[in-house]
Amino acid sequence: MMTAMTQPRPCSIKALALDLDGTTLRPDNSLSERTVRAVRACADRGIRPILCTGRAVQAAEEYRAALGLGGPHVYCNGAVVAEMPGWKMHTLALQDKESALFCAALARKTGFYFQAYLPGSPEDPRHRLVSERGGPERDFYRKHTGMESEIVDLEAALAETPGCIKTMFIAAAEAQAQVRPLIAERYGGSLYLAGSLGPFLEIMSSRATKGEGLKAALKILNLDSRDIIAFGDEENDLPLFRAAGFSVAPANARDMVKAAAGLVVGSNAEDAVSAFLEGFFDLKT
User: Fold this and answer.
1) pLDDT > 70 fraction of the chain, expressed in percent and rounded
2) Do 84 and 114 belong to one domain?
3) Do 24 and 45 form a contact (C-beta atoms < 8 A)?
4) CB of 37 closer than 8 Å to CB of 16
5) 2, part of any domain
6) In DSSP terms, which residues pair with 16 in a beta bridge?
7) What is the pTM of this model?
8) Which residues contact 127 (CB under 8 A, 6 or more apart)?
9) In the list 76, 92, 128, 269, which could disulfide-bond 118, CB 3.0-4.6 Å?
10) Is residue 15 located within the same domain as residue 143?
């Protein structure tokens, strides 16, 4: 429950930082009409919705388009801030090749599934998703995001690019617990590791977090972080919360995220984000 000390005033809020999976989207990855109406009503009042997602630009595009949002948005957990529509890249924080190859070697040794996002080209700015093998994890990711990795020799693919947007293991919690300490011990503060959506362990440059991405977007928009409400449910949303003036987590969020939030609302299955927006801003949708 919000207290008088923590509750922001509706008139002071200039933007919303919206995580997608597990927060704004329903459990089946759909975007409800109620949520579309609420977010658009906020935009109509001059409150800027900013997507802050772990998804690649093309994997989030159907939701951005459905919400009718332009301007800068945060993708790939903050590794990318892109102006949409149009694919204008404002920021691109790449993971270095050496650490990506170390993770790939670790995946081969353990048998855990691993994939990497590579930057596009000026001719085709879409992110390129690559892996060294197929499997049920690759199929799961395709069903969830609509993106299917190309099967490649990762070392050869990395030789042709300046680095990775992000890399990720798709594995159970016990498997993640095996590789995460090894990566953290070797690379210390040069990498940012975060869990998302249960089986995803995402690895990025330490300059790539949703919090850093949001700061970059706010600078472009000339907005103050104190005037932002952030919404999120996973470990990768914690930096987003720290970069915003107030934070909201759905009931289905991880315990660590609910503990960090200024307010916990209903679940994403109940359209809790739109319910909050309707009540907080007294929307008539």
Assistant:
1) 98
2) no
3) no
4) no
5) no
6) 49, 229
7) 0.94
8) 56, 57, 58, 76, 80, 117, 118, 119, 120, 165
9) 128
10) no
